Amino acid sequence: MKFKYYIVALFVFIVLLGLYVYSLSGASFTFMIPFSTQSITLPVAVWFVVPVIVFFLIVIFLEIGGSYRMWRKRTKYKHDYKILLEQIENQLLSKDVPLKQPTMNRYKSLSILLGNLTLDIKEGIALKSGETRLDELIELLGDLKRGEYVNLKKFNPGEKSPFMNQNILNQIHSDEKFATEVLKKSSYDEESKREAFKKLLNRGETKTIKQFIGEIKFNKELANEMLGMCYANKINFSNDEIAKLCTEVKYSKEDYLHLAQRLKECYEPAAWVGLFENLANQDELAEIAYFYVLLELEMIDEAKERLNAYPQNELLKVRAYLDLKDSGKKYPLELFLLD
C-alpha cells in the first residue's frame, strides 16, 4: 500500500472512531499529570483517538527511517557499481590509475578480485550487457583485434595502452598516407615505424622507401623483406648498402648462406660474386656464404686461393669438399656448408 493511502485510511479511521465513541458517551475525563498539579480534561472520545495518533506518528517515524536506510543502501549500491564499471574499463584499456575502493564489503572483495586479473576481449560478437559505455568499448576493442582502425578518443586509453599501439598498427595497414606520416615523425616507436616501412615496401613505393631507410631500426624480418625487393628487382641496393643492412641486423652464418641461395636465381654471376666478396670482407660470418658462391660457380681456383689464407685446421668442411671434388667425387655442396 502506498504511504499516502495509508494516511488517508488512518485519518478516516480516527474520525470514525472519534465520532463513534462520542456517540456512546459525550462525557469528559480528567488526566492528572504525574509529579505536577496540572491536569488535562478532554472528552472521552479524544482520549480514545490520542493513542491511535501516537501510534500513527511512531509508524511514520519508522517508515521514514526505513526509507532513509533503503535510500542510503541504494546510493551505496549505485556508487559501488559505478566504481566497478570504471575499474573494468580501466583494466580493459590498461590504464595506470589509482584503484578506487567500493564502500560495501562484497563489492570491495569483488574489486580486489578483478584487480588481480588481466581482462581481454573474446573472439566473436559480444553479447550486450545493457551498460552502454562498456558495451560500446567492448565492441570497439573487438573490431580493433580483428584488424580494424577504430576511434578510441572517447575512452582516452593513454599512449602506453597495448590497444592504442594495435590501433596505430591497424591504421598503418589501412592507410598508406598515415604510414608515411608515421615515418616522418619521431614520436612513434620503432615497431610502428617498421610496420609503416613494411607497408610502403608491400606497395612498392621505391622512392619513399629510399627516403626513409635512415629512419628505421631494422630487424631480421624487415631486412629480409627489404632484400626481397632486391630479389624481385624492385629496388636497387649497392653492395655496401646490403652489407651495412646485414651487419645492422646481425646476420649469422646461416642467414648469409640463405641470402646467397636466394640471390642465386636473380643475380648475374659477376654481381653475385662481387656482392659476397664485399660481404665477406666486411663480416667474417659471411665467409662461408662467399665460399658457397665460389664453389657453386665452379670458381675452384679462386676458392683454393682464398682458403690458403686460413690455417689448415679451419674451414674443414670446405677443404673436405674440395678434396673430394679433386678425387672425382661429387656431393651436394649444401651438405658441407649447412650445419
Report on the architecture of this protein.
- With 339 residues, this protein is mainly α.
- Helix content is 65%, strand content 3%.
- A two-stranded antiparallel ribbon has the order 1-2.
- A hairpin with a 6-residue loop joins strand 1 and strand 2.
- The longest helix has 49 residues, at 44-92.
- It is rod-shaped.
- The chain starts with a helix and ends with a helix.
Q: What is the end-to-end distance?
A: 89 Å
Tell me the number of strands. 2
Order of helices and strands: HEEHHHHHHHHHHHHHHH
Radius of gyration: 44 Å
Strand order of the largest sheet: 1-2
Oligomerization category of the chains in this entry: single chain
The largest sheet is: 2 strands, antiparallel
Total of helices: 16
Overall residue-averaged pLDDT value: 83
Shape: rod-shaped
Q: How does the helix and strand content classify structurally?
A: mainly alpha
Q: What amount of the residues lies in strands?
A: under 5%
Q: How much helix is in the residues?
A: 55-70%
- Uncertain spans, ≥5 residues at pLDDT below 50? none
